[in-house]
Design goal:
This protein is an alpha+beta fold. Helices cover 55% and strands 11% of the residues. Strands 1-2-3-5-4 form a five-stranded mixed sheet, covered by helices on one side. Strands 6, 7, 8 and 9 form a four-stranded antiparallel sheet that branches. Helix 3 packs antiparallel against helix 4 and helix 4 crosses helix 12. The chain is rod-shaped and about 175 Å long.
């Protein structure tokens, strides 16, 4: 429907120009110009697929018939908007402009305003309104559209990169959790295997049948250890803690958190600890490990980004949850160039760890210039509490324009809101209407300035003309000249039925003598003689003379 509406719009604009120029009586060969308009409207739908041949043909038709100007203007706008190459766009628009000027100039003596200079003026007017102005508007809009498309592509790429980095941080944290589980479960299975081996030795003589059960337990434990290493051992290098930070039964307890705070104090940071509630030694290891990781990662970030800021670590152990809050004030000076080293994904890993336990995590800057980290971990996490995966961003095909699917990117973009789409269409329609009005005014100005084809001196009366033809030539009777000739004129020609004494023919040849022209007609009102004679003239006295 949109191509049909566009074609109907430019056809209406062309008919408007044709009718307005005809109403002003400046339309030469109206049927031929109307035929040119029909041909131009027929070529208009091909402007996108065949811009190179369609635009020059419309330029030629515009030079011959100004009513094709709106069709050429819409085509120039579309070609300029869709052509990416600057040289190709310049060649198309420049060639079209030259064709309009050349055709209007060469055709002026035959079907135009007359002389070639006036045809040149008409061509320049049509070039400005049908090629140059719409071409510049289309170029500007096309560049804007391509710039917006590039910015959106960069924004989508940055968003995908951010989501990929967050996903990588989550996977890294899950790998770390898996490695911790490997350590915890492996330790417990090692103890089970050790006790089973001791039980096997103790029952070797006392109860051989029960000894076989102990052997089965030890072997099953050994197989479980091997399968666990096969499934999770590969994840160990990604996040396995070693050294002083290795996972122990004291990880996440009050003593462990106090140790972290003391290490930060030794590093030169003023850290205060506020512990509320009982210790966490009776809570599951994964809960304690989450508390340890939140405090340790937060203090690490303070070391990196605000080493001189005061820090407060708060741990509130309640019946159903453990709340951890780490807040630091604004640093007195910006961090040095070597203190802000990090991937920036530690908080994402903390969020992943806390949410896997069914808790809540939040981190944001403070209005005072500091930073806060808040985490709430349930004391008895539900094993089924796994967060939903983050939805992937909507992909945008590189071949699609910035407004959404579809080839065209102007008034037909389905991605635009309805109000913007309506405003865009209205702007294009008003622009085409304004150019059509300018075309009509320009054509009218050129035609009005050019001399009329019938302009020039009127033909002189000749013997044999009728009275009406002589009157049309400006020869009319004047009573004063007739009175001056009465009694002083020569005899009238034979067959004269009446004479005319025009004022234009009366001239004073010398002082006191007035030359009078006489046009004599026969009974059939045909001019039979033109006579000129002299009669005396009467001069009035000067104002200062007295009779």
């Amino acid at each position: 429907m949109r191509p049909v509406a566009e074609t109907a719009g430019v056809a209406s604009a062309g008919l408007g120009v044709w009718g307005a120029v005809g109403y002003l009586d400046f339309l030469t060969h109206p049927l031929a110009q109307l035929f040119a308009l029909v041909v131009g409207v027929g070529l208009f739908p091909l402007r996108r697929r065949l811009p190179a041949p369609v635009l020059p043909v419309l330029a030629v038709l515009t030079g011959l018939a100004p009513c094709v100007g709106p069709v050429a203007a819409a085509t120039a706008y579309t070609v300029a908007r869709r052509t990416v190459s600057v040289r190709r766009r310049a060649r198309l628009l420049g060639g079209a402009a030259l064709l309009v000027v050349g055709c209007a100039t060469l055709s002026a003596p035959l079907i135009g305003p007359g002389a070639m200079p006036y045809g040149l003026a008409l061509g320049l007017v049509l070039t400005a309104t049908a090629v140059v102005v719409p071409g510049l508007v289309g170029t500007s809009y096309g560049q804007q559209r391509r710039l917006v498309r590039a910015l959106r592509e960069r924004g989508d790429a940055a968003e995908r990169a951010r989501r990929f980095a967050d996903s990588e941080a989550r996977m890294h944290e899950r790998s770390r959790i898996a490695a911790e589980m490997h350590d915890l479960v492996g330790h417990r299975l090692s103890l089970i295997s050790l006790h089973a081996g001791g039980l096997e030795l103790a029952l070797e003589a006392a109860d051989p049948e029960l000894r076989e059960e102990a052997v089965l337990v030890r072997r099953t434990t050994r197989d479980a250890m091997r399968e666990l290493r096969q499934a999770l051992g590969v994840l160990g290098p990604l996040g396995r803690d070693t050294g002083s930070e290795a996972l122990t039964d004291a990880t996440g307890t009050r003593a462990d958190i106090e140790t972290l705070v003391a290490e930060s104090r030794d590093g030169g940071i003023a850290v205060g600890l506020d512990w509320t509630g009982p210790d966490l030694d009776a809570r599951p290891a994964r809960v304690r490990r989450a508390v340890h990781r939140v405090v340790r990662e937060s203090l690490t970030n303070v070391h990196r980004y605000a080493p001189d800021a005061p820090v407060t670590v708060s741990v509130a152990h309640q019946d159903g949850s453990v709340r951890v809050a780490v807040r630091n004030g604004a640093p007195p000076a910006p961090p040095g160039p070597l203190t802000g080293i990090g991937t920036g994904r530690g908080l994402t890993g903390l969020r992943e760890r806390v949410e896997l336990l069914g808790g809540a995590f939040d981190a944001a800057p403070l209005p005072s210039g500091g930073f806060r980290v808040d985490a709430s971990v349930p004391t008895e996490p539900d094993d089924s509490s796994v967060p939903d995966p983050v939805p992937a961003p909507a992909r945008w095909a590189p071949g699609e324009p910035s407004g959404g699917p579809g080839e065209d990117g102007d008034a037909g973009r389905p991605g635009l809101p309805p109000e913007r789409l309506t405003a865009h269409r209205l702007t294009l329609a008003l622009g085409l209407g304004a150019l059509s009005v300018l075309m009509v005014l320009g054509v009218a100005f050129v035609y009005a300035s050019a001399p009329h084809r019938d302009a020039g001196p009127r033909p002189l009366p000749l013997v044999g003309m009728t009275y009406d033809e002589v009157s049309a030539a400006g020869v009319l009777d004047n009573a004063a000249v007739r009175a001056a000739a009465t009694g002083h004129e020569p005899p009238r020609p034979t067959g004269t039925a009446g004479c005319v004494y025009p004022f234009a023919g009366a001239t004073e040849s010398r002082p006191g003598a007035l030359t009078v022209a006489r046009y004599c007609f026969d009974a059939s009102q045909r001019l039979i003689a033109i006579d000129r004679f002299t009669v005396p003239s009467v001069r009035d006295a000067s104002p200062w003379e007295t009779p």
